[in-house]
Amino acid sequence: MPRIYRRANAAGFGNEAPAAGDLKRPATPRSKPLKRPSQQRAHFTVNAIYDAFVRIWRRDGWDGVTTRAVALEAGFSVGALYEYFPSKEALASGYVRHMVETMLARIDTEVTQRKNADWRTRVRRLVAIACGADDEATGIVFDADIIGLEPRIAEPKHHRRVFEEFCEAWRRALCACPDLPTAPDAAKVQALVLAVWGARRYRLLLQGAALQPAQWVAEMQALCLAALDEKATDAQP
Fold first, then answer.
1. Region of residue 207 (left: phi > 0; alpha: psi -120 to 50; beta: else)
2. Smaller CB count within 10 Å for the chain: N or C?
3. 100-156, pLDDT tens digit by residue?
4. Domain residue ranges in the chain
5. 3-state helix, strand, coil in the chain (%, to 5)
6. Is there a contact between 209 and 119 (Cβ–Cβ < 8 Å)?
7. Chosen CATH of 96-229 out of 1.10.357, 3.40.50, 2.40.160, 1.10.1200
8. Distance CA 158, CA 228 (A)
9. Backbone torsions φ then ψ of 123, nearest 5 degrees
10. DSSP three-state, residue 76
């Protein structure tokens, strides 16, 4: 899985956006996480920091987020936070990557490795995860505020990388459906991911002006089921 934790100054989630007149300005080392947690205690620390980061952001807005405030909220020293995140942009970068990896892991566990489930059940679950149907219950936050921050922490190549990861996760999930009418080709998988992930992002930008969450998820599930049902597709004129 591609990583954002690098020694080189390559841009990624967590890098400052180039100024309008300086599109080639290199990213600063402070704008991305320094390392990944490798041991159980380190994972606990980083997850607690992420939880505190989200609470402060939702309560006080981006201006209220500081490394000191997050460290105090999480119950750790500022030095402990700085071992991983040298700035709040780096913290946002790490959280976005955490969100993506959580989604990928859930697709693998709840869809690809699921036993004794027909393809329709698997696809409904796959789409529900991609739509963020139960993100609140799992503690994941992906909202319009995060999308608004993306110009400061991401470049097009990083969006492409995430898209490729989602496409591969969907491909594996669909390949795990032995009763699927026909295995979809790469173009169809990409189209479905674009339809669901793109719709999720745009729906957030509408901020409540579209379908209610449950209805929207149900419609996206129906769309994907129809696209993957060869008989239903062939029946169309």
1. left
2. C
3. 999 999 999 999 999 999 999 999 999 999 999 998 888 888 989 889 888 888 888
4. 96-229
5. 65, 0, 35
6. no
7. 1.10.357
8. 28
9. -65, -40
10. coil
